[in-house]
């Protein structure tokens, strides 16, 4: 039984929610929830933030596993660490075979991680960076096979540029989020 909502419905719900005035603290969990519901093959999603080179913190998580996997920040390596440094998108299928993060991978695999996708987010114009992390404990593939064709090409997300530098505690409305990833980075056509 498929418990995930239709991708089109999830994206439509996300688009409607963007028009509501929200703080950054309210917006990031909503983004994580929509990503979890709409991106096939990933069962946990987190958003981490870093302001002007400060310590990275998990700002939104769909489950406890996200917090455990976010120990990558203490190790100084992992897919999201790479997006917070220089990469725009990091794809890690079959992560147990991935040599890029020799300290992160063993612990992540022990926790059940099979694959991961990380996307850089720009949260404001004052230097706050974020990383959208999608974790799968059920599939080694980042684009798992679907029962039929799937095309997920969201429009380029906006940015949270109207948020003040102290946005994590601000009550000022959140206007939008902008990703550095090209929309095509999220497109795939999976066939049986």
At the fold tier of CATH, the topology name is Beta-Lactamase
CATH architecture: 2-Layer Sandwich
Helix content: 25-40%
Global geometry:
globular
In short:
The protein is α+β, with helices and mostly antiparallel strands and 192 residues long. The chain is 27% helix and 19% strand. Strands 1, 2, 3, 4, 5 and 6 form a six-stranded antiparallel β-sheet that branches.
Note the topology:
Elements: H1 7-18, H2 24-38, E1 44-51, E2 57-61, H3 64-69, H4 72-75, H5 79-85, E3 89-92, H6 104-110, E4 115-122, E5 128-136, E6 178-179
Antiparallel strand pairs: 1-2, 1-5, 3-4, 4-5, 4-6
Task: Provide structural commentary.
The radius of gyration is 16 Å and the shape is globular. Helix 1 runs antiparallel to helix 2. Helices cover 27% and strands 19% of the residues. The chain has six helices and six strands; from the N terminus they run ααββαααβαβββ. Strands 1, 2, 3, 4, 5 and 6 form a six-stranded antiparallel sheet that branches. The two termini are 17 Å apart. With 192 residues, it is α+β, with helices and mostly antiparallel strands. The protein has one domain: GAF domain (Beta-Lactamase, 2-Layer Sandwich). The C terminus is likely disordered.
